[in-house]
Amino acid sequence: MNKRKFPVDTQTFSKVRSFYNVYVDKTQHIYDLITNFGVVFLSRPRRFGKSLLCSTIKSVFQGQKELFEGLAIAKTDWDWQEHPVIHLDMIAKDLSPQTGIRAFINSINKQLDNVCDYYDIKIEPSDMIAGRFSEIISALAKELNKVVVIIDEYDHSLLETIDNIELQNELKARLKSFYGILKSEDQHLRFVFITGITKFSQISLFSGMNQPKDITTMSDFCDICGITQKELEDTFAPEIERFAEKWGGKENYLKRLKDYYDGYNFTRDKTSIYNPYGLLNHFVDGGLFLPYWSYSGAPSFILKYLNMKNIDAIEIENAYMTANRFVDYKDDTISLYPLLYQAGYITIKDYNEEDNCYTLDYPNVEIRKTFAEFLAGNYSSSNADKNITVANQFIKALNDGDMQTFMDTLRWYLHNVDYSLSSKITEYYFEFAVSNIINMLGFVCKNEVHTATGRIDSVIFTQKRIYLFEFKVDKPVESAIKQIKRKDYTLLYANDNREIVKVGVVFSREDKNIIEWAIEK
Hints:
Elements: H1 13-19, H2 27-36, E1 39-43, H3 50-61, E2 85-89, H4 100-119, H5 129-143, E3 147-152, H6 156-160, H7 165-184, E4 189-196, H8 202-205, E5 213-214, H9 229-235, H10 237-244, H11 250-261, E6 264-265, E7 272-273, H12 276-284, H13 292-295, H14 300-308, E8 319-322, H15 323-327, H16 336-343, E9 347-352, E10 357-361, H17 365-379, H18 384-400, H19 403-415, H20 427-440, E11 444-450, E12 455-461, E13 465-473, H21 477-486, E14 499-508, E15 513-520
Parallel strand pairs: 1-4, 1-5, 2-3, 3-4, 13-14
Antiparallel strand pairs: 6-7, 8-10, 9-10, 11-12, 12-13, 14-15
Helix pairs in contact: 4-5, 5-7, 10-11, 17-20, 18-19
């Protein structure tokens, strides 16, 4: 079988259609957008296909009909009328306190220079970028046609300066003036599309323009970025056939793909979406299951936010919040859970209509592993090379049911966790430390699992076993085992054919480590 070429790092639609064998058709969604709305906003995590979507919309409005042969939009009544397009990528480098504003202005001016060169108009660079933006729109509309404006990563500079309020406020003021042009030039605009990771400051930042239609959580556009189960099985059928035998047959292989790269839900109806970056890299690398999304870059703004707000990492677990707090921003702030959700680290797992609340959790194994590694790199002082050896010991011990080796290795790991980051030592912080290392290994570890009679501190899932952990601080280990039995925690997994192992663990506040443990099967 000939290997197909995948557009893993390609964000230009014309290149995807010209040089690669695979494209997941999203053009019906694009047709619905551009025929029903004038100004649109979309929030999605990084590496989720936003930039390719922007490029595809650009090609539609540039009338490049030949690129869309055989796609959904080619079967519609779209007229392929050509419009001038201003496509701006708002990523600016070197946003330091000393050079941030200058770097931002230079970045915008350079992109506006390219627009002027492409359409052969003369509007000179200026520090007043909003004014220049307005002049370019007016000139293009007068000489050619109504203008399409595409703004990708609108929030990049704000995220990068999340820990520098003074610089961020100055950038906000300039951005607000810049985006305000989209209102004053409305008569000259055909369509406006804005993307970003977050929605924070959206209301105030866009207050000078016509408020965009936010399609972020609209069911009709839940899969405008990313890949659905049907798209996976239809578009990637040759690759599924190729790798299925390697992973125990088609059914097992599809389940593994789902566990590792699926699980993103952007709407209340729980339509599950695969991360395209991880999935494409998996196929390119011969069917390896690796956390490609995390390899693509570290989200520094997350750590900045956690440190700035003095948030303990354990608070991230088991998020549950009302819908209005989750999606509606009425001021200039953003809270932890929406930020993690929009950044791709947690996703919607359930929606309760009665109390109008979302349940939020990690989307899949890749993200559990990614976030655990990210936190471990900032919350642990252990040596990276040593960590690799220890990781192998953890994996073998869990798979073999060797709790002695597991506990000995866990004691070493906990010795390197920086507990000075938390204000007090409780069972919850030890839960976090344990789940952190387990998730980092690629296993699933859930904290505070609710049952009819109580809450299990931590549950670790392996292929052959389910480990139920009860943690105590400075108490007899017998009390931990007795609690698991008294509250009958095993009942939750009665229909699971895996072996259930009950584990009691005692920590010492003084030693900040495990001092005793016991198991019962």
